[in-house]
Each structure stands twice: as structure tokens, then as C-alpha cells.
């Protein structure tokens, strides 16, 4: 009788653990929206970028200049112009305005030679990823692209409990993702499009 009760108790524990494990694979937050292919993005210059400035018919003013940690850059005839947070076209128009004091109707083209981008456009991965880190956003970057870059999940990751922190309409939202299904189950429907500034949080499994 004691042996039967003992086996029943063990069976109950196994069933409870299995039930909890099944629940742990269910995303906690509303799912991240699937990719629509309609998201448009413009690269913004950031600290650490290298900016090539070409001033038509003025090679002495042209050159390649770094963007300082404070987001500003200094070039020939122009000191401390704000560069971070602007598109190359916006920066070109600002340089034209600044050079207008010295050059009649300057025509400026700006090319980003080495792009890092501002911190608020980088994507961060924290928690149980193999290599948690901050990465530069790339156009149409997807969740699987991001996971390849960070080396996948650790053995302790609760992949289907992961979520993305994303600013939507000025408010921070938590959007669930199914990393376990995507990486270990090969479910491509779990792949979603990333956005600049996203933070992917991968929690640790409880067992």
C-alpha cells in the first residue's frame, strides 16, 4: 500500500512539473507584431561616426571628420556643429548655412564613412543570450538576425518568456517573442522585425 502511494505521489509531482513546464513555454506578454515590410527608417548620425564632407569647388574645406562623444564635430571653417541625431542630408544643409558666412552659395554633400549611429537607435540584448551586447540597427533586421549576432541562447534561457521593450507612441511596451520556438523548433512564424532602440530581454528559466 505504501509503495502504491509512493508511486502515485511521484506521478503527481511529475505531472505538476510537466504542467508548469508547459505553461513556461507560453509567452507572458502580447506578441510582437509580424513584419509588414512597410517600416521606413532613416539613418541618424551618432557619436563615433566618421563623416565625409564634400563642398563643391572647395576642396580645402572638404574632408573627413569624426563626430565627438558630445555629438558635435569640427571641420574647416566650422567649429562645434551639432551632428548627432541628424540625417546626412540635414547635416549637409546645416553646414551650408554655416559656410555661407565665408563661401557664396556653398553646395555640400555629407557621406557617413563609418556608421555607428546614436545610442537610442542601437538594439540591446540582455539576459540569457550567449553574448549579451548592444548592436547597431540595420534596415529590416529581424529577430533571427539578432539572435545569430549574439550567438543564440544559453542552456538556462526561458526562450518563450522573452520579450522586447519598445517605445510605442511615447510609451514603453512589452512585446512577447517565442525564441524557443524560433531557434530550437524552427518555427519561422516566430520571427519578427526589430526596430531601432529595441531591448530584447531573455529571462532565466526557473528549472
TrEMBL record:
Coiled coil: none annotated. Gene3D superfamilies: Outer membrane lipoprotein wza domain like, wza like domain. It comes from the Bacteria. Residues 1-21 form the signal peptide. Keywords: Signal. Pfam families: Poly_export. Residues 41-112 form the Polysaccharide export protein N-terminal domain. InterPro entries: PEP-CTERM_polysacc_export, Poly_export, Poly_export_N. This is XrtA/PEP-CTERM system exopolysaccharide export protein. It comes from Thiobacillus sedimenti.
Amino acid at each position: 500500500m505504501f509503495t502504491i502511494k509512493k508511486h502515485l505521489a511521484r506521478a503527481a509531482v511529475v505531472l505538476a512539473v510537466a504542467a508548469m513546464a508547459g505553461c513556461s513555454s507560453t509567452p507572458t506578454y502580447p506578441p510582437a507584431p509580424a513584419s509588414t515590410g512597410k517600416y521606413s527608417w532613416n539613418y541618424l548620425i551618432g557619436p563615433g561616426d566618421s563623416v565625409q564632407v564634400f563642398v563643391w569647388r572647395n576642396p580645402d574645406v572638404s574632408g573627413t571628420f569624426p563626430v565627438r562623444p558630445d555629438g558635435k564635430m569640427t571641420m574647416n571653417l566650422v567649429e562645434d556643429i551639432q551632428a548627432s541625431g541628424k540625417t546626412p542630408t540635414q547635416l549637409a544643409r546645416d553646414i551650408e548655412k554655416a559656410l555661407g558666412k565665408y563661401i557664396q552659395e556653398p553646395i555640400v554633400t555629407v557621406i557617413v564613412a563609418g556608421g555607428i549611429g546614436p545610442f537610442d537607435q542601437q538594439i540591446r540584448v540582455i539576459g540569457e543570450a550567449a553574448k549579451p551586447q548592444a548592436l547597431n540597427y540595420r534596415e529590416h533586421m529581424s529577430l533571427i538576425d539578432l539572435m545569430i549576432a549574439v550567438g543564440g541562447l544559453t542552456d538556462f534561457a526561458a526562450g518563450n518568456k522573452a520579450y522586447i521593450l519598445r517605445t510605442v507612441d511615447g510609451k514603453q511596451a512589452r512585446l512577447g517573442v517565442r525564441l524557443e520556438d524560433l531557434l530550437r523548433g524552427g518555427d519561422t512564424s516566430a520571427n519578427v522585425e526589430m526596430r531601432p532602440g529595441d531591448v530584447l530581454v531573455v529571462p532565466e528559466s526557473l528549472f
